[in-house]
Specification:
243 residues; 8-stranded parallel β-barrel; 27% strand
Length: 243
């Protein structure tokens, strides 16, 4: 499954490089317009991140989420700044279908355990953002002494089955993803559905994910910079669904 990505700061579509807010590139299309384009091209599940919320530690773009989720045919996977029970309730009330949780899982595992039990593993997605093999949190502004394996193993007993792994060193670089990282994780945790995030630069990268049996791939900067078109993604999506 291919997931087109929308990163949001101040209600606008942006992309960063290696998670550095100083490298922000802002694009003309609004998040709602992008959702409409993506849905029209056959993409129902859309990955979205509230970058302002991730940095500030609380959701800042739920009004934008409401408009995005209101687009007919759109199902939104949303992360960024989700820290409390009320944050999560507000997120789902605003129309999100899935919640991506990173910092809370790393720093407050009991709370994420509670959310997994309350909302179910089909709704909760673990976000493991890695810098030099260690988990980064708070919008990638802080690091934890925790590996992806250690983070995942905390929650597998409660049914965790969806994990987005971002190699921060590849994010926004358009140099290809860290294939070795994902194949190793998949071999170690065969019951987990991993999403490749960071570095996709071309249709060749997507085809390589397909060949390696990596079931989900997020496409962000390559789409916005014209390295990959929605039409090309649509054709590749068909290959994912037939495998």
């Amino acid at each position: 499954m291919l997931l087109p990505a929308i990163d949001i700061i101040d209600g606008k579509c942006v992309r960063l490089t290696k998670g550095d807010y100083a490298t922000q590139t802002t694009y003309d299309a609004s998040p709602v317009d992008m959702v409409k384009r993506m849905v029209d091209s056959g993409f129902g599940r859309i990955h979205a991140v509230d970058l302002s919320g991730a940095r500030q530690g609380h959701p800042t773009a739920l009004n934008t989420l409401e408009k995005m989720a209101a687009v007919n045919g759109a199902s939104i996977e949303w992360g960024g700044g989700l820290k409390t029970d009320s944050d999560l309730r507000d997120l789902f009330n605003a129309g999100a279908t899935w919640a991506v949780i990173g910092s809370v899982a790393a720093r407050q595992p009991l709370l994420f355990n509670h959310w997994l039990c309350e909302y179910g593993p089909d709704t909760m997605v673990l976000g493991a953002d890695l810098r030099d093999g260690k988990v980064a949190v708070s919008g990638w502004t802080a690091d934890e002494e925790l590996t992806a394996d250690e983070l995942i193993n905390r929650f597998r007993p409660l049914g965790l089955n969806q994990v987005i792994v971002t190699d921060i060193s590849r994010d926004g670089m358009l140099q290809g993803p860290n294939f070795d990282l994902y194949t190793t994780l998949r071999a170690t945790h065969p019951d987990i559905i991993f999403t490749v995030s960071g570095g996709i630069s071309s249709t060749a990268d997507i085809r390589r994910c397909l060949e390696l049996g990596l079931p989900r791939v997020i496409v962000g900067k390559a789409l916005y910079e014209g390295h990959i078109t929605l039409g090309e993604m649509q054709q590749l999506q068909e290959e994912f669904t037939t495998r």
